[in-house]
Design goal:
With 336 residues, the protein is of the alpha+beta class. The protein has helices at residues 72-81, 103-114, 122-137, 144-151, 190-208, 226-250, 254-270, 277-287, 314-317, and strands at 2-10, 22-23, 25-38, 42-47, 50-57, 87-93, 156-161, 167-171, 176-182, 292-298, 305-311, 323-326, 333-334. The chain has nine helices and 13 strands. The structure holds alpha-D-galactopyranose.
Length: 336
């Protein structure tokens, strides 16, 4: 079977998904295809991006130890899906690998579909792949990446409620360009720092006796530890920004939408402490560029990409190297 899944960029709402909050990502026009001819009891894949082939036994128990490392995400899917038949196949991707555009989620979703997972229930598919990602990377990630890769809609971002999993398409205005710049920073700290942030958010919620999704910004003052208080303040204010952003973008108010993105970056930088000097520098240069409405780091942070909302045509005049325009595309599909 031949399956394709897009990568994603998150417009706003970071480090909110794993506490049941709000996010607003879009699936993009870069992605990964996985083609498998079924047969045998091993999955053998080659990738355009790495000369080392992958050989994954169908009874694999520790995907995180597999080499080559790119195939751990495939192995994670095999460990969760437990297909009864293996196969031989090929992975091709237009996404920068490990570059903060969810290349791993795209690989998981495309692999699951290529191995026969039911694609008609996008949420179930995303949950399967979220589990695969956690097994493969050891990162206790949320659902955002896999869910938008599985269920994105062309021309729209998705406002996702990570408590109910309700998804509301938000139209991207036609005169807008979404720009992505890869910082080139590898996210070496991401595994441990992401898990630490998640624990801090859980501790803050436990102290308040409520989900951070439901607390008002004023309630946060009751948290005694100053670090936990700042973490919680990021989550509570970020959830409010996502709601305001979806309303602003949906009504074509790109100035307000951009300002909310810039505010989100400040919160991720100062309260959640997941930015880097390079990311801050890129966001500053973008925000000072004519035609840019706002910019922020996108995804987990500690490196990876920044995203900007800009007037159509801005990219052409941009002097920042490596900036690419991404378009909102539909979610994953089986191609035969
Ligand atoms: C990574 C995770 C997501 C989400 C973001 C931060 O991309 O996979 O679940 O938590 O970080 O918003």
């Amino acid at each position: 079977m031949d399956a394709y899944a897009p990568g994603r960029v998150n417009l706003i709402g970071d480090h909110t998904d794993y506490s049941g909050g709000l996010v607003c990502p879009m699936a993009i026009d870069l992605g990964t295809s996985v083609e498998v001819a079924p047969g045998g009891d091993v999955l053998e894949l080659v990738s355009d991006a790495d000369p080392a082939p992958a050989r994954i036994p169908l009874d694999i128990t520790e995907p995180a130890r597999l080499t080559p490392p790119w195939a751990r995400y495939v192995a994670g899917v095999v460990a969760v899906l437990r297909p009864s038949v293996g196969g031989r196949g090929h992975v091709r991707s237009t996404l920068p690998l490990g570059g903060g555009l969810s290349s791993s989620a795209a690989l998981e979703v495309a692999t699951a579909l290529a191995l026969g997972a039911d694609g008609s229930d996008g949420l179930a598919l995303a949950m399967l792949c979220q589990r695969a990602e956690q097994l493969a990377s050891g990162v206790p990630c949320g659902i955002m990446d896999q869910l938008v890769c599985a269920t994105g809609q062309a021309g729209h971002a998705l406002l996702i409620d990570c408590t109910t999993f309700e998804r509301t398409p938000v139209r991207i205005p036609g005169d807008v360009e979404v720009l992505v710049v890869n910082s080139g920073e590898r996210r070496a700290l991401a595994t441990s720092a992401y898990a630490l942030r998640r624990r801090e958010v859980e501790q803050a919620a436990a102290e308040l006796g409520a989900s951070l999704r439901d607390v008002a910004v004023d309630d946060i003052a009751a948290i005694s530890d100053p670090t936990l208080r700042r973490r919680a303040r990021h989550v509570a204010t970020e959830n409010a920004r996502v709601t305001a952003f979806a309303a602003a973008l949906g009504s074509g108010d790109v100035r307000s939408a951009g300002q909310l993105m810039a505010d989100s970056h400040v919160s991720l930088r100062d309260d959640f402490e997941v930015s880097t000097t390079t990311l801050d520098g890129l966001v500053d240069s973008l925000c000072r560029t004519r035609g840019v409405w706002g910019a922020r780091l996108t995804g987990a942070g500690f490196g990876g990409c920044v995203v900007a909302l800009a007037a159509a045509g801005t990219a052409k005049a941009l002097t920042i190297p490596g900036a690419v325009v991404v378009r909102a595309e539909g979610g994953a599909s089986v191609r035969g």
